[in-house]
Amino acid sequence: MEKEIVTAMDKKKKTTAILAGVLIVALIAAGCWSFSSKAEDNKDFIVQGNVKKTEIDLNSKLAGNIGEILVKEGDEVKAGDVIIKISSEAVEAKLQQAEAAKAAAQAVAQKAQNGARSQEIAQAKAAFDYAQKTYNRMKTLLDQEAISQAAFDQVEAQYIAAKETYNMAVEGARSEDVAAADSQVAQANGAIAEVNSYLEDSQIKAPADGTITAVNVEQGELISTGMPLATLTTQDEPWIEVNVKETDLNKVQKGQKVKVTFPAYPDKEWTGTVTVVNKKPDFATKRATNENGDFDVLSYGVKISISGMNQELYSGMTAMVDFGRIEGK
After folding, report:
1. Name one GO cellular component term (predicted).
2. Is 201 a residue whose pLDDT tops 70?
3. What are the tens digits of pLDDT across the range 68-114?
């Protein structure tokens, strides 16, 4: 009997010990979860982005063949430097035609302004005097019915024409004729200016100081209008661009100070400033799911300027942007 009582007490002690152990494990697990939850709620909001630089594609306004390439990738250039030349023989021929047309138009305009020469006036006067004498003589014969009306009409027409020619020689060109001649000169000047613009476009020049980061053509290659011939990366300050999900936009604001690090320089850290939060979304980063509800999560571009950058940055380099600690609720 005593043995049975002792056995029952031992079982009760074991059960109590097991329950106590389970309780202790549960309390420890709860504490760890609470600590982990707080740590999770208080972690920094870090987003991966990339270095961006201003890149300009140098396109052609003309179709033709590449005449000469004056740079190679990696060359430093100044604004106005000629990068590529397009063959311009056809354009130069058009320039010669336009200049010849201008010279002809100027000659006509000069003649209209100067009027007839003295020799031309004298010649017109002689022809008019002869026509007038003939007219007077023929009119007398008509009055005497010695000639027909048709013969007199022919002489009268010649007399009127000679008189008009003489008057025009004396008076010079009419104002509208002078204006018309001047307009021809202006039109020729416009044609020359147009051809000169084509010649200017045949030389592809750097629009700003920078580095040639791509050359897309070969000498002699046939190109079309609008074709990108080369790429220029300017010397403007680089910036960081990241994409932030719309569900995280409450953690980002314009003017906010951030920490920026680069895997290329692992032991260094720089301060950045949020300069732009795009109003237009870039793309959907997550499609509608049970986790985020019946909507697509969109991404918005955020630009960050960097202060005190003393290391070389290349377009596309990876950057890590720390927007600061997210406090738990």
Report:
1. plasma membrane
2. yes
3. 999 999 999 999 999 999 886 766 767 677 777 777 767 666 666 65
- 169 has pLDDT over 90: no
The answer to whether the CB of 88 falls within 8 A of the CB of 70 is no
Q: How far apart are CA 280 and CA 300, in angstroms?
A: 7
Cα distances (angstroms) measured from residue 110 to each of 113, 114, 130, 164, 169: 5, 6, 31, 22, 15
Residues forming beta bridges with residue 86, ordered by sequence position? 66
Tokens of 252: 């980002």
Higher per-residue pLDDT: 243 or 62: 243
- Give the predicted TM-score (pTM) of the model: 0.52
What's the whole-number mean pLDDT along residues 149-158? 84
Q: Which of 5, 26, 45 is nearest to 328 (CA)?
A: 45
CA distance 6 to 259: 69
Contact 223, 66 (CB under 8 A): yes
Rounded distance between C-alpha atoms, residue 147 and residue 150, angstroms? 8
Please identify which residue in the block is written with the tokens 């980061």.
Answer: 213
Please state, in angstroms and rounded to a whole number, the distance separating the CA atoms of residues 285 and 299: 6
Cα distance between residue 187 and residue 195, in whole Å: 13
Q: Other C-beta atoms within 10 Å of 241: how many?
A: 18
Q: Is 209 exposed, middle or buried (0-12, 13-18, 19+ CB in 10 A)?
A: middle
Mean pLDDT score, 189-218: 87
The set of residues, in sequence order, having a beta carbon less than 8 Å from that of 300 and lying 6+ positions away, is: 243, 244, 245, 246, 249, 277, 278, 279, 280, 281, 282
Asked whether 274 and 45 are in contact (CB, 8 A), the reply is no
Helix 118-143 × helix 149-171 angle, to 10°: 160
- Contact yes or no for 63/224 (Cβ under 8 A): yes
